[in-house]
């Protein structure tokens, strides 16, 4: 049990990021499914809606529970949010390009393509958040 506690303490941030990353992925996939399959909106437009919901969810969870941001004044929060959104725009652009390549060029089912892109995006977003957004 001590070994488990030691590993948890040592890797707490990564474990929390992975936990909330899974939840963010669920938000992304479920909103993508809702827009693309239920509302029958084009997959790229559905992907944009999915991205917006996932980014909002991720910012709140990363700020409060993963990286425990200490920024409390409005200027610092806005700067942090701006950096977060810009990093997510970069990973969102990568998401869109990979989706296009997988779906339109390689003819992969869009739900499978979305799952593949989510793995790439989660890794990139951790690196961006750790090194750029919540570096303090």
TrEMBL record:
* Its membrane topology: Multi-pass membrane protein
Write down the superkingdom of origin. Bacteria
Coiled-coil residue windows: none
GtrA/DPMS transmembrane domain sequence ranges? 17-134
- Keywords linked to the UniProt accession: Membrane, Transmembrane, Transmembrane helix
| Secreted listed as a keyword | no
Q: Which GO terms describe its biological process?
A: polysaccharide biosynthetic process
Pfam families xref list: GtrA_DPMS_TM
Q: What is this protein called?
A: Putative flippase GtrA (Transmembrane translocase of bactoprenol-linked glucose)
Q: Which organism is it from?
A: Asaccharospora irregularis DSM 2635
Mention any one GO cellular component term assigned to this protein in its UniProt record.
plasma membrane
Keyword hit for GTP-binding = no
Localization, UniProt: Membrane
Q: Which InterPro entries match?
A: GtrA_CellWall_Glycosyl, GtrA_DPMS_TM
Family listed: Belongs to the GtrA family.
> Which residue windows are transmembrane per the record?
14-35, 41-60, 81-103, 115-134
